Amino acid sequence: MRALLFTQLALLVTIISQAAPKPKLIDQNATTETKALYHNLGKLARKHIMFGHQHATEYGHGWTGDANRSDVKSVSGSHPAVIGVDFSGLSGRPAEAIERTKASLRKDIAATYDRGGVTTVAWHFANPVTPKTGFYWKDSVSAPAVPDLIPGGSHHPQYKDILKTVADLANTTKGADGKLVPMLFRPYHEFDGGWFWWGKPHCSKEEFTALWRFTVTYLRDSLQVHNFIYTFSPDCLFRTEAQYLDRYPGDEWVDMVGVDNYADFGRNGQYNIEAGITKLKIVSDYAEKAGKLAAFTETGLESIPNTTWWTNTLLKALKAEKMKLAYVLVWRNDTRSPTHFYAPYPGQASVADFMQFYQDPYTLFEADLHHVYRRKKLLFF
Description:
- This protein is α/β, with parallel strands linked by helices.
- The strands form two sheets. The protein has an eight-stranded parallel β-barrel.
- Residues 9-17 have low confidence and may be disordered.
- The protein is built from eleven helices and eleven strands.
- The chain is globular, with a radius of gyration of 21 Å.
- Helix 10 (309-319) packs parallel to helix 11.
- 45% of the residues are buried.
- It has one domain: Glycosidases (TIM Barrel).
- The chain has helices spanning 2-18, 32-44, 71-76, 95-115, 146-149, 156-170, 205-222, 241-244, 273-290, 309-319, 351-359; strands at 49-54, 59-60, 63-64, 82-86, 118-122, 183-186, 228-232, 256-260, 293-299, 327-330, 363-364.
- The N and C termini lie far apart (48 Å).
- Helix content is 36%, strand content 12%.
- It is found in: Secreted.
- Residues 1-19 form the signal peptide.
- Residues 32-367 form the GH26 domain.
- It comes from Fibrella forsythiae.
């Protein structure tokens, strides 16, 4: 009998030791609200996914700067659960312009927090070495700047100054409760392509991972930023986990893993949903194995000409493999362009289908979120 008990105990210990690690932030000094958000994102991803839209409350189709407005809210009655902003204006411009940008970002990010929503941050970072080239790579003009920014590089001191600007924004953006606002910080996205100056053709694997690790270390440890959740998001140019992790800086440097994928979801009329699902599953499975959160960090169909895209393409893909994804974000609605939009606005052809997407119990919008910045009083419905 005793031998049997010891055998069962040994088996139990083995099962526990082999279990996937519990998601834990890489910043041990993260704020209480940031820890709570991270915990709750993992919890909701078991049965739901949050819907996000880039620049949702800053501007939309034919408007800009209206208070408490978004195209998604105009259609559904609720803002997106996740709202994307961009730190693109925090460098390469006159000091006065940067300060105006910080003030605007503080206001928008704090407003989302006060309403109970979540902010994710992209960084279309203008090339610090050749600033006139912007964030896109331009052959024969753009500098391959990554090696210049890492420790020992010619522009490393300048990069530290830019990160100080980012840190100042992070450390001064507070909600009405006086607490620092947590943000999903997603630098150097789509690095596996060549269209940005930090892309794969323009720096080595070692240079890219050194840049990522320095960025985290300097913000977290030197500049005392403790309200960032660090998010890793390549484009969809991978087919295996090994390819996905080709430039991964390591589990100790990442909180959330994601993927940007427009190509498999209808861009230029091309659909390969099976491939898109496979890539999402690679991301979700790795997160589960490594103790990370996962997300579909960017997608969308420009102009939404497919009037059932929300339910017959996106929702079906998200539900296909019982994946655990915290959120899915579609790109922005330009204020002037008649065709550059990724979420419906009143009267747009996909509104009826979007409302089915909105009403599905699996999807969460801002009105569905309650107490995501608290650990013990979490409600999603």
